[in-house]
Amino acid sequence: MFTNTKRNDIISNLKNNKFDLLVIGGGITGAGIALDASTRGLNTAVLEMKDFAAGTSSRSTKLVHGGLRYLKQLDVKVVAEVGKERAIVYENGPHVTTPEWMLLPFHKAEPSAALPLRLACESMTF
């Protein structure tokens, strides 16, 4: 249990024990990393500046995206990396990820963008 009344005990524990992994930040990413590491048997500690998960949900889109903006910039390497990371998330947490259909609007002055974007989206779907 994390409480400021046990702050000195927690600091002492951090000073006197060895950890395999020290996660800095108790937001959704840090908490996920800590959970994954601890379930793999690593002795894990998490440091958080304020309160765990304070404000993180309001700043997160909660989307696992495919990197379309990087594709538009022709940064294919980043798009491939994002795709690999997305596949890992689906594999490790299928119970917390749900594919969602999205509507992408096009400006009528750019109808030629529709086909390449559709092909890109289809290639990123698995």
Automatic annotation (TrEMBL):
<dbReference type="InterPro" id="IPR036188">
    <property type="entry name" value="FAD/NAD-bd_sf"/>
</dbReference>
<dbReference type="GO" id="GO:0009331">
    <property type="term" value="C:glycerol-3-phosphate dehydrogenase (FAD) complex"/>
</dbReference>
<dbReference type="InterPro" id="IPR000447">
    <property type="entry name" value="G3P_DH_FAD-dep"/>
</dbReference>
<dbReference type="Pfam" id="PF01266">
    <property type="entry name" value="DAO"/>
</dbReference>
<dbReference type="GO" id="GO:0004368">
    <property type="term" value="F:glycerol-3-phosphate dehydrogenase (quinone) activity"/>
</dbReference>
<dbReference type="GO" id="GO:0046168">
    <property type="term" value="P:glycerol-3-phosphate catabolic process"/>
</dbReference>
<comment type="similarity">
    <text>Belongs to the FAD-dependent glycerol-3-phosphate dehydrogenase family.</text>
</comment>
<keyword id="KW-0285">Flavoprotein</keyword>
<comment type="pathway">
    <text>Polyol metabolism; glycerol degradation via glycerol kinase pathway; glycerone phosphate from sn-glycerol 3-phosphate (aerobic route): step 1/1.</text>
</comment>
<dbReference type="GO" id="GO:0019563">
    <property type="term" value="P:glycerol catabolic process"/>
</dbReference>
<feature type="domain" description="FAD dependent oxidoreductase">
    <location>
        <begin position="20"/>
        <end position="110"/>
    </location>
</feature>
<keyword id="KW-0274">FAD</keyword>
<dbReference type="InterPro" id="IPR006076">
    <property type="entry name" value="FAD-dep_OxRdtase"/>
</dbReference>
<keyword id="KW-0560">Oxidoreductase</keyword>
<protein>
    <recommendedName>
        <fullName>Glycerol-3-phosphate dehydrogenase</fullName>
        <ecNumber>1.1.5.3</ecNumber>
    </recommendedName>
</protein>
